[in-house]
Design a protein that fits this description.
The protein is α/β, with parallel strands linked by helices. Helix content is about 25%, strand content about 20%. Strands 1, 2, 11, 12, 13, 14 and 25 form a seven-stranded mixed sheet that branches. Strands 7, 17, 18, 19, 20, 23 and 24 form a seven-stranded antiparallel sheet that branches. A three-stranded mixed sheet has the order 5-6-8.
């Protein structure tokens, strides 16, 4: 019998396991569908290139055909190991804009404003630069400057300044707007996932049980109270665990709503369609799906200063292997998205609405399409899309992936924002700073110039930048799934704590905010 059963050892789940088991009188169980995080590709920063392809560490979801993207199915990588997506992501440390959290509070979510969460952001990190009004030291999550800055990344920052954008050395400080190098969740040149930061240091606690290869199949209820979890073990047999306290779902924006639906919690029509007994008719489960849609402008690199797929790159690679072995530096410590920033498509906007990620290689289809030679890619995404999608069940079998329908560009404003973003990318890449480096524009391509041609390009080439949220929305309206204590409406003994509770998508990378959701939830439970 456990006091707390946490489903999902991802960015928030590992935080919860650490904080709740700090009380020696609490028995805590953490379930993870994937394996241990022992793969060397997890801990080697540049290994993101391999984890993106892994069938062991990655759920490798596909969306349903997207109407506004010419019925393309988009690839959605999500972490399936201890650490979740923090074990396979690009390690970029950003929090979003203070407005994002103040907006959550304005929606009626007490305690979720920026001033409420800033102490938690500071508490959860060890900022290698030292403490400040916006950063803390001594926390589990190590935040560091990159040990590798490619020549192309430095050129990009000079080019952005030439194009008139402000420069920034801290996107999480007093002002988000600007362009510069990202800080990363790394320690000593290796990935610092939520598992490495929060779970491994406390793994030996006698009151903490961690189970891997445990696919949760449903939440167990007595009436409307959650009393445990059923899961499929490695042999495919169902095992039941019981709690005298709470079940906390931390499976992320895909797995948490899927598990609620499988457990009989969700829209009545959806449950009846699959013959699932109804525990609680909750219309918002799986609704409100939001994600950052990303589009890329890519060029050949005439000076071969980028990271290339070419025989001529081998000497640099061998040198980097030696550097990494000796002092944990060099190309192998790169997260590939070393530089970027937050800008406004229109100077009249109150806060940035676009985010850049500059990769010093030709990145096409999440790196799954390999281009030989050298090049660079400038990604831009719409930070606050207005389109809303839905997640539903494919079947009542927990082994079947759910149906993902993000409905990208279903709101016309989102296409226009991305159009403006592509134009700003081209402006930066056309500056004098890139003279001498700038080769052929691979995409959109020289022939694609008019507004309609660029809109066509966006529809044919845009992809996710891996930030799905919102499917177990926090709030008090008809589609809200949890309240501002993250308790599931209409039920007891059940909370959700992960990116699915975000009522609106934050303006930045979602990993650090998700860890703080874990911190906040632990605080709520222990208090």
């Amino acid at each position: 019998m456990y006091d707390d059963i946490i489903v999902g050892a991802g960015s928030a789940g590992c935080v919860l396991a650490n904080r709740l088991s700090a009380d020696p009188n609490r028995q805590v169980c953490l379930l993870e569908a994937g394996p241990e995080d022992t793969s060397p590709w997890i801990h080697l920063p540049v290994g993101i290139f391999f984890t993106m392809r892994s069938r062991t560490l990655n759920w490798r979801y596909q969306t349903e055909p997207e109407t506004e993207l010419y019925n393309r199915r988009l690839f959605w990588p999500r972490g399936k190991t201890l650490g979740g997506s923090s074990s396979i992501n690009a390690m970029v440390y950003t929090r979003g804009h203070p407005w994002d959290y103040d907006h959550w509070a304005e929606l009626g979510n007490h305690g979720w404003g920026y001033a409420d969460l800033l102490p938690l952001f500071k508490r959860n990190q060890h900022q290698e630069r030292g403490p400040s009004d916006y950063h803390g030291v001594g926390g589990p999550l190590n935040v560091a400057d990159l040990r590798q800055h490619s020549e192309i990344s430095r050129v990009f920052i000079r080019a952005a300044a030439e194009a008139g954008y402000p420069l920034s050395d801290d996107f999480n400080g007093a002002e988000q707007e600007g362009v510069g190098f990202y800080q990363v969740t790394q320690k000593n040149g290796q990935r610092c996932s939520s598992a490495r930061a929060y779970l491994h240091p406390v793994r030996q606690r006698p009151n903490l049980t961690v189970m891997t290869h445990a696919l949760a199949s449903r939440v167990l209820f007595e009436g409307r109270r959650a009393v445990g979890v059923a899961y499929l073990n490695r042999a495919g047999k169902t095992v039941e665990l019981r709690t005298q306290g709470e079940v906390i779902l931390s499976g992320g924006a895909i797995n948490s709503p899927q598990l609620l639906l499988l457990s009989g919690v969700g829209p009545r029509r959806e449950l009846e369609r699959h013959g699932i007994p109804i525990v609680h008719d909750l219309p918002g489960v799986g609704q409100n799906l939001q994600d950052h849609l990303d589009v890329v402008v890519a060029h050949r690199d005439r000076r071969q200063a980028s990271y290339g797929f070419a025989l001529s790159f081998l000497p640099r690679l061998f040198k980097s292997i030696i550097e990494y072995q000796i002092c944990r530096r060099g190309f192998l410590t790169s997260n590939l998205a070393e530089a970027g920033g937050f800008v406004k498509s229109n100077p009249a906007l109150p806060i940035p609405n676009l985010q850049y990620h500059l990769t010093s290689t030709i990145l096409d289809d999440h790196g799954r399409h390999i281009w030989s030679g050298y090049g660079y890619s400038l990604h831009v995404c719409d930070l606050r899309p207005k389109s809303r999608g839905v997640l539903t069940l494919r079947s009542a079998d927990p082994r079947d992936p759910p149906l993902l329908q993000p409905r990208y560009l279903s709101h016309p404003d989102d296409l226009e924002t991305l159009l403006a973003g592509v134009k700003t990318c081209r402006n930066i890449l056309a500056t004098r700073a890139f003279d001498g480096y700038r080769g052929e524009e691979l995409f959109p391509g020289k022939a694609v110039q008019s507004g309609d041609e660029l809109r066509e390009f966006i529809r044919r080439r845009a992809e996710t930048i891996y930030h799905p949220v919102g499917t177990c929305k926090m709030g008090h309206d008809r589609l809200a799934v949890v309240d501002d204590q993250l308790r599931v409406h209409g039920l007891s003994g059940l909370r959700v704590a992960d990116a699915s509770i975000m009522p609106t998508l934050i303006g930045g990378n979602t990993n650090a905010p998700t860890m703080v959701i874990g911190e906040k939830t632990a605080e709520l439970i222990l208090r």
